[in-house]
Amino acid sequence: MHLAPFDPSAPCQPPSHRSRLLMAMAQALTEQGYAAITIADIVRLAGVSRRTFYEHFDGKQACFEALYRAASGAALRTLREAIDTSQPWQKQLERALGAYLGHLAAGPALLRSLFVDVHHLGDAGAALRRETMKQLADFMCETIRRQAASTASWSPIQPQLAMAAVGAINELVLMSIERGEAAELASLTPVAVRIVGSLAEGCREPART
Residue 154's beta-bridge partner residues? Predict the structure, then answer.
């Protein structure tokens, strides 16, 4: 089973109990779905005791939320690390968004479970999604602000516009998941680049006459 969107353990080091529990939750999600998972399933797959589980999480939902944040954090790190400020703006966009979407596509089963099963959490799930989207929007604002600082004809982007772009890309990802095309998410790169690129172009100052 490929869990590429989530890598909880440091290279060459044995995973901690917490990491083993998160990996077990990831496996259970892809095999059963959130609603069917029990604490017994998680501790069995992790190879730890129920007592150990409760040392780290106060229940199944808390474990899921930690997994969701870990997976989102791994995807955001991929996005950040793909930014190459020595390249032209368009190339930066293509490289970063391609890496981000490729990262998500590397573990389609887990991705589908996280995107779909987060809705089982109701208001808590909605808040979790907004938290993740805000992190991506903040990163977009930070990146365009850096571009604006180095290019006199640009200005920073409004946070609401950045969130709108993140929401649009998120919906494209969700649509691909619903169609069973999660493994081909990298094919969305050109559209994602156009969304962010068009938004960034709107931050250019109008030419003076």
Answer: 204
Q: What is the DSSP letter of 57?
A: -
Q: Is the distance from CB of 101 to CB of 186 less than 8 angstroms?
A: yes
Residue 160 Ramachandran class (φ > 0 left, ψ -120 to 50 alpha, else beta)? alpha
CB 44 within 8 A of CB 113: no
Q: How far is CA 89 from CA 144, 149, 168, 193, 196, in A?
A: 10, 13, 20, 11, 11
Average pLDDT, whole number, for the chain?
A: 85
> Strand, helix or coil at 29?
helix
Angle of the 17-32 helix axis to the 108-117 helix axis, nearest 10? 80
Angle at Cα 41 formed by Cα 131 and Cα 47, nearest 5°? Answer: 100
Contacts of 15 (CB under 8 A, 6+ apart): 8, 9, 23
Asked if pLDDT for residue 3 goes beyond 70, the answer is no
